Amino acid sequence: MSEINQKPPIAAIATPVGEGGIAVIRISGNDAIQKAASCFKGINLSEVKSHTVHFGKIIRKDGHVIDEVLATVFRSPKSYTGEDTVEISCHGGVLVTQAVLEAILDRDVRPAEPGEFTQRAFLNGKLDLDQAEAVADLIHAKSIKAVDAANQQLEGKLGEHIKAFRQQIIDATAMVELELDFIEEDVEFANKDQLRSLLVDVSHEISKLLDTYETGRLVKDGVKTVFIGRPNAGKSTLLNTLVGTDRAIVTDIAGTTRDTIDADWSYDGILFKLIDTAGLRETEDVIEAEGVKRSQKAFEQADLVVYLKDLSKPIDNAERIEIAGFQKRAEATPFLLIGTKLDLYKEPVDARLHYDLNISALEDENIHQLKKLMKQRALENKDYDTSSLLVTSTRHRDALQKARENVQRAITALDQGLTGDFLSIDLRSALKDLGTITGEITNEDILSSIFSRFCIGK
Ligand SMILES: Nc1nc2c(ncn2[C@@H]2O[C@H](COP(=O)(O)OP(=O)(O)OP(=O)(O)O)[C@@H](O)[C@H]2O)c(=O)[nH]1
Ligand SMILES: [Mg+2]
Predict the structure, then answer these.
(1) Which of 237, 246, 267, 391 is most deeply packed, by most CB within 10 A?
(2) Of the residues 227, 230, 235, 237, which should be mutated to test ligand 1's pocket, given the most ligand atoms within 8 Å of the CB?
């Protein structure tokens, strides 16, 4: 672990603003324990052992008592940030918590920026950068699978892979640079085949990890699922049935939904971001026409398209063409054609259309099957194994892609018989790309964009 560098003390409320049993205020940095001791009436916190909890009172500079609290002391380096840290648990009221924080800030302690505690943990070598990002992912996770994915990363699974890739590339670089040293003496490059297979191996391993990104993205951000179809097809009814509330207005008037309506829905650990849309039709009504435009836009951004067709109404050629058009435009995006109002449906199924499933949202017919089908279809063709490591961040994906490109460039250079210094440049670039993931190589811009995603107090 790197040397702990204790920075000036910072403090923040670490729990959400609101009323609750307790709230926690965190102080970290040089002199944090003395600062906490100076507003704490009870045992002298400066003299207590690390990882101990103490009952006392928080007092303002003028001696006024604010609250009875418990103070937990963590001595450097055994704390989240690596610095001396005190966590004060006070009563969880908005004003009392604020007053405790102010009493601390009044002792020359600065309010913490968003993510500043975690940033210090990173700078002190307590966490790699990808682990620090996982902390934010864990806090923002909206489904159990997203929690699992963040935990894998927090445990350092991604970092382990990256370090293994780096080691392989370092080995390859060493082989290349060894050759460079002897170039004057015209030494034949003995290990060309071995070097090539090492590089092909790394490139292959990076590709395998990159293949998990599509699943990782859906697990982390949710599956954007758009319901489209003609007016009155039952789109809003289905949305309401899935989320279990009357989120969208439902009437028998065609054109009820004018704007897109979003609702989060979790199924079997996966978050679906459902989007109900305005029914598709030519219309003179300006508001409805704008709604139809938005339906098209939602379609274009979807991860899963569900086209709903009212089975109680005969289908015309125009709708057949419309469905085929959507299917074609969806390309690789999974597409489901669902017949609705099965309870009203008496006619034989239109043989020219293949329905994935027929449902009745009102009578709860085949809804369970629909849920299963939605999950299956959304994740099909994806490398879906959430028990293994998933790449969930575009930052990591981009860096892995760049690293792979550089490794492939080195392979091409090798095949073309270019000299070692060309290979060496490519391999060093690949090392740099991988280093940005774990934070061995970083800059202020990357750090501030990552840590600004955090809440204050983390
Ligand atoms: N019998 C029956 N009626 C349904 C079913 N689903 C929806 N409906 C009815 O169909 C009508 C239209 O439903 P909506 O959910 O508003 O349809 P929509 O596709 O959102 O319509 P627009 O917003 O106008 O595009 C309502 O009267 C619903 O009660 C069903 O499964 N069975
Ligand atoms: Mg509707």
Answers:
(1) 391
(2) 237
